Amino acid sequence: MPTNTDRWPRLLAGLRQRLRWLLHHVWSLSQPYGAYARLMRLDKPVGIWLLLWPTLWALWIAGAGHPSQRVFIVFVLGAIVVRSAGCIINDFADRHIDPHVRRTRGRPLATKEVSVPEAWILFVGLMLIALGLVLMMNPMTRWYAVGGALITVIYPFTKRFLSTPQFVLGIAFAWGVPMAFAAELGAVPRVGWLLFLATVIWGVIYDTEYAMVDREDDLRIGVRSTAILFADLDRVFVAGLQCMFFAALLLVGHSAELGPWYYAGLGLAALMSLYQQWLIRYREPQDCFDAFRNNAWLGSVVFGGIALNYVFGIS
Asked: 95, exposed or middle or buried, with CB in 10 Å at 0-12, 13-18, 19+?
């Protein structure tokens, strides 16, 4: 006849078994949602920051340091939603290419963790959320949003026939700038288009650094990029684009009558660009990827300069 001493180990063993069963099933149920999050790149938020920073630059300049709270919330949420949707359409376009690229072979569509119909349902759902957000804005902003959506869908397919798809991505990531001015002011003034131009150039810079990571794989499978187009002059072209980027930002500062804090932010950002040049000097994939990621910090520094300019009001 079992004693109390024997009963407790059996109870504990049974509890451990049931707990393992429960954790196994919870983990199994969570796997598809984890794959969806990775499909939207929520585990890699650098793209959200690269989309969001120029939008915040524009909102702060358009609102003279005090943008509308409603517009701010809509644009922050919109950046997260649209970037997530853009990642899905990009992975759909590249679903037959990604398995052959070292960096991308683990993506959910490449591994078939997520099916194509599931990806499309998620994409449509995100675009409906984006539509709901943009309907809260004025008519001009809505029309700009239509253009931005078209560019987002077109970009992933340009790598098949265009040697400079990074320019298309630059336009896509800069599109929040005129939208922000339209939402805040009902118009896009000259300074808005200067900031848009600067952001397009910046997009080409960081996406060229990104493309340098995959250059060997892209050459092998026939995908085009500015990293391939520029070849051994890639660092020279990136440096030239960096100079153009800062020249455009200087014009933005002059047009918006920004003060010393803004130019101090640009100075620090310029040092970060030099650091990126140092990182890509040997064209090592991981160093090029680190240079790409460094741009999220560069964008924050530029925003810090803009914000502090309006906080302290020095001109």
From this structure: middle
Among 229, 223, 33, CA closest to 114: 33
Residues 6 or more apart from 298 whose CB is under 8 A from it? 269, 272, 273
Distance CA 254, CA 194 (A): 11
Eight-state DSSP code of residue 208: H
Say whether pLDDT at 30 is over 50: no
| Calpha distance 226→204 (Å, rounded) | 8
Q: Write down the pLDDT at residue 64.
A: 95
Separation of alpha carbons 225 and 159, rounded Å:
7
CA 165/CA 177 separation, integer angstroms: 20
Of 127, 128, 199, 214, give the one whose Cα is nearest residue 169: 199
- The string of pLDDT tens digits covering residues 148-203 is 999 999 999 998 889 999 999 999 999 999 999 999 999 999 999 999 999 999 99
Cα dist. 195→11, 118, 237, 268 in Å?
A: 67, 37, 21, 18
**Cα–Cα distance, 79 to 44 (Å, whole number):** 14
**CA dist., res. 130 & res. 148, Å (int):** 11
What are the structural domains, with CATH classification, of the chain? 37-312 (1.10.357.140)
Characterize 174-190 residue by residue with b for buried, 16 or more Cβ atoms within 10 angstroms of its Cβ, and e for exposed: bbbbbbbbbbbeeebee
Closest CA to 142 of 151, 131, 150: 131
